[in-house]
Specification:
4-stranded mixed β-sheet; 10 strands; single chain; alpha/beta; two-stranded antiparallel ribbon; 9 helices
């Protein structure tokens, strides 16, 4: 994420701000020029300003912004808890779309050839399966509940689980046919053959678990389930690295005499920028009695896969 300042008084503000706390200027995020601006006519607030705490700007009264318009289904108005979780999920989705814009993968609306939509559903009345199918990303809004999400993280023995992480993983599935088309053989050399039966792979994974040596080849145990999941986990990891390094660079965060981190550097340089920062941040978290902020190990095979993701993004851009 970039660092933002108030366009009136230049005080620092966050991506989520709707008002400058220093000079009280009303703010909104404008997709063009993709920054926070003063909320002056003809800009208006998104119609979901109250419902989803959306701080994005629109041109027409009652219109939905570039992010909210992608949501196909949400909890009903009587579902107070579901709507609270919905607002948290929408905040994560806006951050996802901003980063995709930074990478040249989203220009304010999806590619007409590859429609994109989101179903953000409460699992209170009936079970909801988080996932992706043909451009539709579904999220169980229970993931926005800290207690539920932590319980699931522990049960599944995951080192990391967030709403933003879910979105980054599922958007990886969405981009697979867009980015990998024409590079299938190179993909298979790194990730495996995606033509393997997905249902059989899923059953095998949950019956036998991941291979003992999974950490040597993949970024997570779940990535061993099927090449599509390996791609999605790696794609999400690339978004983690890009966003974290961009944030560090925007705020001038560096370790000792390390150079300023560059989010658009080649993957090996990107990883080289990130590792000293992640060590320092993990040490800081441990000093405060918390677990590691970044609980991943990036092996050479994983770095090769990250490089492939970066190459395909560059080819698309």
């Amino acid at each position: 994420m970039r660092a933002f300042t108030c366009p009136v008084c230049t005080a620092m503000v966050f991506f989520e701000n709707s008002r400058c706390l220093t000079c009280e200027t009303e703010l909104a995020f404008a997709w063009e020029p993709r920054t926070l601006v003063a909320l002056d006519p003809p800009r208006r607030r998104c119609a979901n300003a109250e419902l989803a705490a959306c701080n994005w700007a629109v041109r027409d009264a009652g219109a939905l912004c570039e992010s909210c318009v992608l949501t196909r289904t949400r909890p009903g108005d009587p579902d107070a808890e579901g709507l609270e979780q919905f607002a948290e999920a929408e905040a994560a989705k806006r951050r996802l779309l901003f980063e995709l814009g930074e990478l040249g993968l989203f220009g304010g609306e999806p590619d007409p050839a590859f429609p994109l939509a989101f179903d953000l559903l409460s699992s209170e009345p009936h079970p909801v399966a988080t996932g992706h199918a043909d451009g539709l990303i579904t999220l169980d809004l229970a993931e926005a509940d800290d207690a539920h999400r932590e319980l699931m993280r522990q049960q599944l023995r995951e080192p990391y689980r967030t709403v933003l992480g879910h979105f980054r993983h599922e958007i990886g599935h969405y981009f697979w046919p867009i980015l990998v088309a024409g590079a299938e053989e190179a993909f298979r050399a790194l990730f495996g053959d995606e033509r393997e039966d997905y249902g059989a792979a899923l059953q095998r994974h949950y019956e036998a678990g991941p291979p003992a040596d999974w950490a040597e080849r993949t970024v997570s145990a779940y990535a061993t389930m099927h090449p599509w999941e390996d791609w999605a986990e790696t794609f999400a990891q690339y978004l983690h690295l890009h966003d974290a390094v961009q944030t560090a660079g925007a705020f001038g965060v560096r370790v000792a005499d390390e150079p300023a981190p560059d989010p658009d550097a080649p993957v090996r340089a990107l990883v080289g920028d990130w590792l000293p920062l992640s060590y320092a941040l993990n040490a800081m978290n441990r000093s405060l009695g918390r677990g590691d902020l970044y609980p991943y190990v990036l092996t050479e095979p994983v770095i090769d896969k990250l490089a492939f993701v970066q190459e395909r993004i560059a080819a698309r851009r």
